[in-house]
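Q: Can I see a sequence and its folded structure?
A: Here is a first one.
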Amino acid sequence: MFLGLEREWSQKTAGIRTFSLVALLGALFTILSTETELGTGLLVIGALLVIVQGIVLATKGLLEEDETLGLTTSVSMLVTYGVGVVVATGYLIEGVVVAVLSSLLLVLKRELHSIAWGLSRRELRSVTEFAILAFVVFPLLPGRRVPVASLGVSVNPQEVWAMVVTVAGIGIVNYVVVQNYGGRGIAVTGFFGGLASSTAVVGTMLDHVRQDADAASYAVAAILLADAAMALRNLTIAVAFTLPDGLLTGVVAPLGAVAVLGVGIAAANADWSTEVEIGLESPFSMRNALAFGGVFLMVVVVGAVAKAQFGDVGFILTAAITGLVSSAGATTSAVVLYPESLGSDAAVYAILASTATSIAVKSGLTVMGSDSQFTRSVAIWSGSLIVGAVVVTGLVTLLVT
């Protein structure tokens, strides 16, 4: 009935009654095939009848140019028949899920068509590459821990790739948000743009300040929002991937403080309704994914050597340096090495160090601009984020102990 309801609402020839009868036909044939000697042949005959009927309707629609008769309606009828069979077999929940999801696909026709037609060739290629890495490469990787050379460090390739896919997925989602809603204000542009590419946010803001000195206030806000988004992303990675092995609670207070303070300071310093366009590159590319994987591998290898020579301090220093390029890469490395090769304290400090250096490097990039006041403002407020995180962490520590 769900499928028929949507078809009826869309004013198609086959509507709620037709689809309900097709589902009942599937259920009836299933019962007869299991309770009598007719066997599965009856189910096949029923399916063939639905297919033939669908072909006839679709052909008639093409010949008569009747929009109420189409291939989608024909396929929907076959799905409805299958739902009836599944439900009669005893898989009630599965049948309902298929029916509801199928109805949703039909209802979202305009939105899905709009998305498909609005994709550029580069964006479509990006989505395809992401799907290959997420659904083809991931299952082929070993699901056990594998030693990295002779460094005394082991990693789970599937776990590592899951993080690469997660970070890439976050970038794609935020690319879509910025592309569709970026014109709605600095909050969307700065925060979601920062998740997709914080460097792009800084570069865009520098251009705006060069063209208009009055843009400094919302430019500072955008960079602070990018910092907040980056901290929230690192916090999400650290929490989501360490739950099974013992949550890294030490990152919650400082990273949460950076996120909250970043949003709060940005709100106080700029008009959030200010519209800013930000130019983002393709949402995903094989090169970017491999580059992220390379950063991760570098941190693991160099960090392992540094840890062997200088203890935990060596790995933390490596993570801090990596944060100049990719705090996500450093965070991912710390999470993957925890708890087998890295203690909780070292993992927490590594994540926080990479986050701090990432905030600092965004501030440093503003030196490339010509507005010294803008550079000072970014430096002061960025420093405030780090100091605020330290203060909040200290207060939380005192309260807990």
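Q: Show me another, different protein.
A: A second, unrelated one:
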Amino acid sequence: LGLAIVLIGLKGAWETNNPLIMIAALVLGGIIGEALDLEHRLHLFGQKAERYLGRSGNVGEAFVTATLVYCVGAMAIMGSLQSGLSGN
């Protein structure tokens, strides 16, 4: 599945008229994500949920992992790129 996503991404990159915009958007998104420290904030939210639920263990880590898998998954990235590149 990962290899298929990479191939779809490479195909989309070759078909775009201006790949510099795509590269700049990816770099800018990475910089903004690091500046906002999103992963740390998700971890803190998971810890608060763990305290609220009164459970000890890996609830916080499970929340962060599930959020990253579903919100930052390969198809979410590819869908956003495809939409931006095709102008839809």
